[in-house]
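User: Teach me something about this protein's shape.
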Amino acid sequence: MRRFFGTKIDGKIIIKGSEFEHLKKVLRMKEGDEVIACTNDDFDYYSKIEKMEKDYAILSILETKKCQANPKKEITLFQMMPKKEYFDNIVAKSIELGVNILYFFKGEYSIIKEIKLSRLQSQIMTACKQCERSKLINANNLISFNDMLKKFKEYDVIIFANEVETNKIDSEILKNKNKIALIVGNEAGFSEKERKLIIENGGNSISLGKRILRCDTAVTSLLAIINYITHN
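Assistant: First, the predicted structure itself:
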């Protein structure tokens, strides 16, 4: 069943904007068709298209179910800003694998210095629909390395995927932890100064294996490990 994001108003769900365009013009759906509507909360709303207006659709709710795809842990990914060819895959895979908050940060070896928020928002919605999550994550502006360090105090544990580390992750450091921060570099990696600062500010340095991974592969690998340990 097709999934759309909308707004709940007076017991109905309103689909508008790009979601309405996709529903009406691309999929050519009509009154009476059934869909799953999401309103950025913990539930999936199994709905029927009640009325198609010029710029929006009105849906009546048939059944409400708790969304099973939303992650249980609060996982934040701090990703050093990568080249464009890695960016899209990192956004998609991080959402599919349970990231709640995504920050791209500027490192010493970052080339791209800005994020197109409208495009990022569209990618986030597409990824959430793909993996059947009912809550969107925020599209955040690019932050500085120092701003990332300041945010560390908000987390129960910080995992740093360090390409020069030899020790693998100890599952005990994740035990009973709910707010988890993950740090992954871009295709050029971290400077020695950046590594030192992350560790000094509480980052647990871990290895993802003997091979140097592409940054999008590193994100996927690290999140798979975290999900396995935490049952997220």
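Now, about its shape. The chain has a mean pLDDT of 95. The radius of gyration is 20 Å. If you'd like, I can walk through any region in more detail.
User: That's plenty for now, thanks!
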